[in-house]
Amino acid sequence: LAYPVPSDTLAALKKFRADGKQCRNLGLLFERYIGYLPPDWRLDDKRSSPKKDALKQIADTPVERELLTAYAQRWRAMVDDAEILEGNPQWRFLTGLGGKGPLEVGFTFHALYGLPIIPGSALKGLTHAYAELVRQASPQDLERVFGSQNQAGDAIFFDAIPAEPPQ
């Protein structure tokens, strides 16, 4: 596979792998270290599925528990005065699917740690839609809580982070 990175970065990546190490930052793996498909690959190619192979590499890369724990501690300190809601998806959950990515699908990862997150903006949009459509909140209440072009709302939405390493 060819990698879409500068030659010095590729040399460092090859040396890293030659030393028996593997990048464990899911965001970097997905956004930067995915190899291009071979030039002769076609959709009807029965030999392999490069997209599936690339996604499997990412799925098989374990999240570093120590990193997640340290990040979660900093996150909790930052949102100390906030009301924290915890939940588990009842089925598979994916955020950022409509974003651009090297595999024609997108995922949302923390910019530094590479951990999967749900952006605060997505949570705000979901909550706004629920308040408007299900709870039928008044326009005044919606503007007070969520804000408008002219004023900030009363609510602040932080990114959601995994409590446990995701599968």
Structural notes for this entry:
The protein has 167 residues and is mainly alpha-helical. It is built from 6 helices and no strands. It has helices at 7-18, 26-31, 50-59, 65-78, 120-134, 139-146. The longest helix has 15 residues, at 120-134. It is elongated, with a radius of gyration of 20 Å. The two termini are 26 Å apart. The mean pLDDT is 81.
Provide tags for this entry:
mainly alpha; 6 helices
Topology of this structure?
Blueprint (H helix, E strand, L loop, with lengths): L6 H12 L7 H6 L18 H10 L5 H14 L41 H15 L4 H8 L21
Characterize the main sheet.
none
Query: Total helix count?
Result: 6
Range of strand content: under 5%
Q: Give average pLDDT, whole number.
A: 81
The SSE string, one letter per element, is HHHHHH
3D shape: elongated
**Would you tell me the structural class of the helices and strands?**
mainly alpha
Residue runs with pLDDT of under 50 for 5 or more positions: none
Radius of gyration: 20 Å
Number of strands: 0
Question: What would you say about this model in short?
Answer:
By secondary structure, the chain is an all-alpha fold. The chain has helices at 7-18, 26-31, 50-59, 65-78, 120-134, 139-146. Helix content is 39%, strand content 0%.
